[in-house]
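Q: Start with the shorter request: fold the first protein.
A: Done. Sequence, then structure:
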Amino acid sequence: MKRGMWVATTVLALAALSVSPASAKVVSGTGENCDRPAAGHARVMPGYEHLDLGTVTREQQRAMERKLRHARKTAEVDRGGTIRVPTRVHVIRRNNASGGVSNAQVDAQMQVLNRSFRGDTSPDAAPTRFRFVLKSVDRTNNTDWHEWTYRDDDRPAKRALHQGGTRTLNLYTASLRPGLLGYAFFPVPTPTFVDGVVLLNESLPGGDAALYNLGDTAVHEVGHWLNLYHTFENNCAAPGDRVGDTPYESYDGNPFACNEAMDSCPGKPGNDPVHNFSSYGNDACIDRFSAGQATRMTNAWNALRA
């Protein structure tokens, strides 16, 4: 989308939305597990592996896989073509309007998403059918929500801000807990207003998250939103990440390393897919989806985001 068109179509939505601070948070339970959603995957920095939100249940996985199998059976009726995903960006700032991201950062993030999903980021990247069309940007002044935790803020903030249905991508930017770059919900059956992607504001292009400020956290998390697991899912055990052309990778083998010679699953073919967007390398390292991942995302769109 040309920048002039983007400005024209979003000028009304770009006005700051002032929201009163939420009432005192209700805190229940203790420990890290209280900050984990039941069907999400996160991207974290090295040393913060305990914040990985890979807790989609086996029952949810089975339900998603049943629907995906049905989508593959009916794939011959899918004529292909570009899939345009309406995208709503929700910028959450402090009460004094600090801590947000600029229009230019949002614009740059959309460019990163589209280049990555087009396959323009590497000669070895597979193109996908997805293109993301910015429909609106809103700004909310709420210090409570800005200091975002899943347990306290995910539901109230999303209940107030979420727009559209299962085929609308809602992106939320806020200040997350240290080490957490973002998280997303899988397209589990009957998604609700919690569906969407939450991003560390400093992970957008031009942010201050060193090594993670080129916009690839959004690419990684949108992959989860389209039903991709981490490439190190299940370590070296079948079914891995359920994609046939991504080599097995072990979570215990340091998925943060950008070493093309690394083979953390020596009993399986291929070296670790360290450059894959669904691995844990930094933004300069990850630059591609595989053809199998592109197919899986399309199948998930047809089956789970209908």
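Q: Next, the second protein, separately.
A: Sequence, then structure:
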Amino acid sequence: MNPRTQTLLQTLENADWFSCVGKRDIADVNYAKSWLDAVSHCVGEDWKYVHREGRSIISSSVYKKSKTRCDQWNDTIDMLKNPVSKLVQRKAASVMELNHLPKEFGWSVAGDLINAALECEYSDVVDPGFFTTTIVDIYLKGHFPCGWEGKYPEGKLVVY
């Protein structure tokens, strides 16, 4: 794991996730109204599309810049799964239990952070993208980035 990815995971470890859900303190986003609404967004097809599209942008950018680095793609994902899963478990377990959130909530968080970690792992060949510059920032501000409204990328991020 490269130092940039390690720094990302440590920064996320030190952050107070979900501490500001329900507050409307971020500009230029749409807000979920409740945990139920947030979960509805994070399991929705629009958000799944954003995740797929985001990962596709990362992988195609890596492929264009370095076929050798692209050949390591699946191994890189495998390497990131365990530390990201453990981080999500530590940081999200209490909010999941307290709010009776389904396992899909955890999967959505893990998907966000795997994509951010991929951007970090490949930062030697691609510029930081949506997940490290936008999604991680939302978590660091204590919110949950949970969806997308409108046609990506022209629409707006949904945050709780």
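Q: Describe the second briefly.
A: The CA atoms of residues 104 and 143 lie 17 Å apart. The chain is about 65% helix and 5% strand.
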